[in-house]
Design brief:
Distance between the termini: 142 Å
Helix content: over 70%
Shape: rod-shaped
Radius of gyration: 54 Å
Strand content: under 5%
Number of strands: 0
Number of helices: 5
């Protein structure tokens, strides 16, 4: 459970909230959901911290008991060895006390190994507890930031969305600009006027050519008249 909580804490802390807001269809709903996620994970992290601390304290208690038992059996082994020396090697009780010393030493060694294992467990649980506490504190800080800035972030997101809509509207107006239609209509009229002027010029040149032909005919008639006079 604790490792799962740590993974979720890391995921939440790495989340790019600004990017999420930019991509969200409804930033307000997304932000509210994010706040709920933080609140839920804070509650679960608090429970995990309490549980790991409880396990840590139990392990510490077991370690103290193992250390006490280790010392106690060491003292018993020493007492039995002294007793064996006191009664003397000739006494039959000496071997009995030496055997008791051996038993006590075996128990002492057993509790020493148990204490070593428990110390490693205490270190591991303490490390896990520290990580959970640190993650929990970070979650709480981020949660406070989110809740305090919620209205500001929602307002900024709405303003950004409004600006986007305005820019889209401006582009649409530019595309459908009636003045551009008038410009195209004016250009068409100018082309029609130019064509009319061209037709006028063509017509005028045709009339001039006709008058020029008439002038040529008059000249030829005069030439013929004068030639007749010379012959007459």
């Amino acid at each position: 459970m604790a490792q799962t909580i740590l993974a979720r804490i890391g995921q939440l802390m790495r989340a790019n909230i600004n990017s999420m807001l930019d991509q969200a269809e409804d930033p307000e709903k997304m932000l509210d959901q994010l706040i709920r996620d933080f609140s839920t994970n804070i509650a679960e992290a608090e429970q995990a911290v309490a549980q790991t601390i409880g396990n840590l304290r139990l392990t510490e208690d077991d370690l103290r008991e193992a250390e006490d038992a280790q010392r106690e059996w060491g003292e018993k082994a020493a007492a039995a060895a002294r007793k064996a020396e006191e009664v003397g090697a000739e006494s039959g009780d000496a071997e009995k006390f030496m055997e008791l010393a051996r038993v006590a030493l075996r128990r002492q060694i057993s509790f020493e190994e148990q204490a070593k294992t428990l110390r490693r467990q205490v270190e591991q649980q303490q490390e896990l507890t520290d990580k959970l506490k640190d993650g929990l504190n970070k979650l709480r800080v981020r949660y406070e930031e989110l809740t305090s800035k919620r209205d500001e972030l929602v307002s900024r997101a709405k303003m950004a969305d409004a600006q986007v809509r305005v820019q889209q509207a401006v582009r649409e107006v530019s595309v459908m600009d009636p003045t551009s239609e008038l410009a195209r209509f004016e250009e068409r009229i100018r082309r029609q006027e130019a064509a009319a002027r061209g037709m006028e010029e063509v017509a005028a040149s045709s009339v001039e050519e006709q008058f020029a032909a008439l002038e040529d005919e008059g000249t030829e008639a005069e030439v013929e008249a004068r030639l007749a006079q010379l012959r007459g």
